[in-house]
Amino acid sequence: MALGLRLSAGALDAAQDKAPAEVAAKWESPSQAIFRYRVAIASLLNLKPGMTAAEVAATTGFVARAIAAQVGPGGRVLATVPDERLAAYVQERARAEGATTVTAVVAKPGTSGLDAGSVDAIAIAGAFSRFQDQRAMMRDLATALKPGGALLIVDFAREGQGATQAGIDAEEVVALATAAGFTREAESSVVPGHYAIRFRKP
Predict the structure, then answer these.
(1) How many other CB atoms are there within 10 angstroms of residue 155's CB atom?
(2) From CA 125, how far away is CA 18, in angstroms rounded?
(3) Average of per-residue pLDDT across 97-108
C-alpha cells in the first residue's frame, strides 16, 4: 500500500462501521499523508478571514479544523459526515481543540449535505473517488458554492483492478468539474502520492 488514503472501497466501508475514536486512530496518524499535510491542504483554498468553507466527506474533520484556523473567529466551517455518531465526535474534537467555528453536518448518502449557495470554498481530501455517482456529486458541489467559490479536490490516481480498484485519475476529475461548469485554476503535488486540483465556480 502506498502513501495516504489508499484503501479499497470495501475497507473504507468497514472503517465507517467502527467507533469514531477508532477511525481517528487510523486516519489521524503520521502515516497518512493527507493528515500530515492538512494545513497545506487548507492553504490551497486561499481562504480569507470571515469566509464560510466546508470539508465534504470529512472523516474526523482534521482538514476542517485546519480550515478553521484560516477563516478565523469571524468565519464558519462545515464538516459533512455520514452519520450522527461521527458528527458528534467531529463537533467534540473541534471544540476541544479550540476550533469553535466548526459545525458538523450529517449528509445524506451521495450528497454534499450543503445548502445551495452557502459556502465560499469546499475541500474534499481523499474522498471524491469514493462517491458512487461522481457526476451528480460534482453538480451538488457546484450548487453549494457561491459564485466565484473554490473547490479543492485532493485524491490519487486510479490503481488496481475490479473490486480492488481505488482512486480516480486527475484527468477524469477535471472532465467532471468542467462538465459541471468549473474552471480549473491550479494544481499542486504538495501532498505526497496525491494530486490537489483547485477549481473555480464562475
Answers:
(1) 27
(2) 20
(3) 96
Band (pLDDT 50/70/90 cuts) for residue 196 is very high
Delineate the domains of the chain, giving CATH numbers in brackets: 9-200 (3.40.50.150)
Please state the separation of Cα 39 from the chain's center in Å: 13
The single-letter code of the amino acid at 178 is: T
Torsion, CA 2, CA 82, CA 108, CA 191, rounded to 10: -30
Residue 169, classed as helix, strand or coil, is coil
Query: CA torsion, points 62, 68, 71, 75, in degrees to nearest 10?
Result: 130
For residue 28, give every residue at least 6 positions away whose Cβ sits within 8 Å of its Cβ, in sequence order, or none.
35, 60, 62
**Using CA atoms, how far apart are residues 170 and 184, in angstroms rounded to an integer?**
11
- Please state the separation of Cα 95 from the chain's center in Å: 20
Q: Does the pLDDT at position 1 exceed 50?
A: no
SS3 content of the chain, % helix, strand, coil (to 5): 40, 25, 40
Spatial CA neighbour of 58 closest among 100, 36, 87, 32: 87
Average pLDDT over residues 105-133: 95
Tell me if 44 sits within 8 A of 70, measured CB to CB: no
pTM of the predicted model as reported, rounded to 2 decimal places: 0.88
